[in-house]
Amino acid sequence: MLMRTDPCLPLDRFTQALLGVSGTWSRPSPIPMDAYRAGGEFVIALDLPGVSPDAIDIDVRRNVLTVKAERRPAAETDDVRMHLSERPLGVSSRQIVLGDTLDTEHITAAYDAGVLTLRIPITERTEARKITIGEQ
After folding, report:
1. What is the CB neighbour count within 10 angstroms for residue 94?
2. CA distance 55 to 48
3. How far is the C-alpha of 33 from the C-alpha of 1, rounded, in Å?
4. Among the listed residues 122, 113, 123, the one whose alpha carbon sits nearest the alpha carbon of residue 45
5. Predicted model pTM
6. DSSP conformation class of 32
């Protein structure tokens, strides 16, 4: 159902935590996720705390699902001074290669409490079948 495509993800997370690097549009940081099957659906839950729903972009092309989000800084005014800023800001992205048994035409998305949940219906796999040649 799902093919993992980033073998360096744990190393990237470690490096980002160590160096305090935020994602940019050219090099976004990865989005943590869970993926599981629930009945007739494949469910993907992505952690996006502090991200506004209008800053999330979801796209599917040729069975590749791409989720991109941007965590923006709080609006600063003249009477507000930042004393401590530990929450990561910037761009996060995740690409997931979906299997042929998933119906990418009917993906639903919900966003609640900082978690983006995508539900993808599972379809019956079309098996190869023998075709007989008839007379004209």
Report:
1. 22
2. 10
3. 15
4. 113
5. 0.70
6. P
Alpha-carbon dihedral 57, 59, 64, 66, rounded to 10 degrees: 0
Using the CB atoms, write b or e for 35-52: b if 16+ within 10 Å.
eeeeeebbebebebeebe
Closest-CA residue to 27 (of 35, 41, 43, 15): 15
**Residue 115: count of CB within 10 angstroms of its CB:** 14
Dist CA 129 CA 86 (whole Å): 58
CA distance 16 to 131: 55
What are 55-100's pLDDT values in tens digits? 999 999 999 999 999 888 777 777 877 777 777 778 889 999 999 8
